[in-house]
Amino acid sequence: xxxxxxxxxxxxxxxxxxxxxxxxxxxxxxxxxxxxxxxxxxxxxxxxxxxxxxxxxxxxxxxxxxxxxxxxxxxxxxxxxxxxxxxxxxxxxxxxxxxxxxxxxxxxxxxxxxxxxxxxxxxxxxxxxxxxxxxxxxxxxxxxxxxxxxxxxxxxxxxxxxxxxxxxxxxxxxxxxxxxxxxxxxxxxxxxxxxxxxxxxxxxxxxxxxxxxxxxxxxxxxxxxxxxxxxxxxxxxxxxxxxxxxxxxxxxxxxxxxxxxxxxxxxxxxxxxxxxxxxxxxxxxxxxxxxxxxxx
Amino acid sequence: xxxxxxxxxxxxxxxxxxxxxxxxxxxxxxxxxxxxxxxxxxxxxxxxxxxxxxxxxxxxxxxxxxxxxxxxxxxxxxxxxxxxxxxxxxxxxxxxxxxxxxxxxxxxxxxxxxxxxxxxxxxxxxxxxxxxxxxxxxxxxxxxxxxxxxxxxxxxxxxxxxxxxxxxxxxxxxxxxxxxxxxxxxxxxxxxxxxxxxxxxxxxxxxxxxxxxxxxxxxxxxxxxxxxxxxxxxxxxxxxxxxxxxxxxxxxxxxxxxxxxxxxxxxxxxxxxxxxxxxxxxxxxxxxxxxxxxxxxxxxxxxxxxxxxxxxxxxxxxxxxxxxxxxxxxxxxxxxxxxxxxxxxxxxxxxxxxxxxxxxxxxxxxxxxxxxxxxxxxxxxxxxxxxxxxxxxxxxxxxxxxxxxxxxxxxxxxxxxxxxxxxxxxxxxxxxxxxxxxxxxxxxxxxx
Lengths: 296, 448
Description:
The structure holds two protein chains of two kinds.
Chain A: H1 3-37, H2 44-48, H3 59-66, H4 68-100, H5 107-119, H6 122-132, H7 139-146, H8 161-186, H9 190-198, H10 203-214, H11 216-231, H12 235-240, H13 252-262, H14 266-294
Chain B: H1 2-18, H2 26-36, E1 51-58, H3 59-64, H4 69-75, E2 79-86, H5 88-100, E3 107-111, H6 115-120, H7 128-131, H8 144-148, E4 151-152, E5 155-156, E6 159-164, E7 167-171, H9 172-177, H10 187-201, E8 206-209, H11 216-225, E9 230-231, E10 236-237, H12 242-256, H13 271-276, E11 280-285, H14 288-296, E12 305-308, E13 320-321, E14 323-329, H15 336-347, H16 349-359, E15 362-363, H17 372-375, H18 380-387, E16 390-391, H19 399-414, H20 420-434, H21 436-443
Parallel strand pairs in B: 1-2, 1-3, 8-11, 13-16
Antiparallel strand pairs in B: 3-14, 4-5, 6-14, 6-15, 7-11, 7-12, 9-10
Helix pairs in contact in B: 1-2, 11-12, 19-20
């Protein structure tokens, strides 16, 4: 390294240091501490007196994998991710295409309207949706009754509670992905569409062979962010159902919250957090691999 | 270990900022943060002329208690009370987090089943020395079974504020039509009455509603039968022992004979409406429903319901659970003296009676029941009798988890997903695992 390079590295280090220190102290240290905790039986007793803390190795993880409740929560979380994720992406894309279409008037208005749920507080939204879902006085069941369909106890029926939560979550979140899709759509050069039209390609083929391939990177980003966000589903069931009825909307993060803050089993809750982290990591790697193979 | 505690303190700040990390979901942030706030100490406020007592109370109690405080502040000019109202649903978490963050109030309300937990945390101040100054008969004025839940290992850690137990709410007209003037006092007669009710009700309706995801009734029946629930100093589950087994079989038979529907409480759309239209004639609940039934049942049903104590096994009096809420002092508070004055004030029979008028919560002191408002309430008399016959659940911090497990396994047995034998064996296994830490502590000679 020459003197100039060394000086450059030094000044780069100085400029980076504040950010690095912040990240290390406020992110990596807490994560590391939580990882350590997941190998202890930190609980109420240990909270009162640290002499009552034990290192238990992988016992929390083993116990987690043997717990039926954890598998229930995991099943519910996958239900939410696999049903809600694709639905959310599809609706965002549909909304983006509609808003971005040349024939659409007031597209600015629709863009803002669809984005509005994203920036509203979830708790306030959940209260409104609870009214919509009310079995007797809810707007949704009123609409169904006009179609001659019997009322559904949206949040009280074990089979309907999760679909109801998914519906609300998708409505709340699709606007964000829509904005990203719009940005992706606007990056596609219009000449490509013109050329395809001259060659006689209809709307579907233009969508299939121009829009979709060129949206590839956007798709990957949206799918990943949606998956990561949906795996961490918490606030929706926490506010709407508290995990009920019959644990049918209990998510992994909600379970973690209950273990950690209701029963104060911090060690066990930390283990649940890291299992979820491993799952999200695996899901991300899998998606990157799949996309990597697709693109030329 | 001391060094470890110091490290925790140093990490405190890191954790609080982790809250602002946008890429994590709120509970993960909260988890990371509170894990590390353990050593956080708050600086003592400078001594002032007026002492402000921080008092946390839950739900409507937190709202209504404010009406009592002007009198307290008039009597103690140097003291002011700041009431923090906490919703019941978040109260337990909030108190634990406050303890972890060293931000406990001076005086706080807590469910009396939480007392063992806060004693295990060393979070509450024993009151025995202060109670010495009380007149000799003052403690005897409390319902003995309720006061017992506030005592652990011979020490008094809290005082009951208001009391709560479970008993029958029933339809007098349906019972009379079934040929019974009032609800029987033994299991056998009780089942006979319910069979009559069921016979008249038909296949769609039931004699009694016992939500299958609740643990209270199977535990009450087991306590009535004389089961101990746990064994060897509460170190192991004792759910396969004959007396528990017998009570459990009796409980299951109520569903097998279709006296009670196999539904959880989330499947009951409108309890009050269904009680009014006779979907069930008997319901086991607590004092809060005196007010709710009065408000929510239609006028036509109002003259036709009452409350009654629970029946017992054989000739035994029917026992129920010792519930309610207590008041405790924080052990670390520098204002314990002032907080104790407030606790004493709230424990006075006159204030207890006024509190009943404000909230409908039943007073913990029996002399307060002489108040005309309470003496004239025809639904309260059954509670007064039942409160003489209450038992505490095991006084260990793990109890609530154990009760949750019990409800889970009982529900599976009622739904016939498992046999009664399998359910109780699985329950014992789960409970033994929950109690593992307690066994370890006792084996190490550490006080749990």
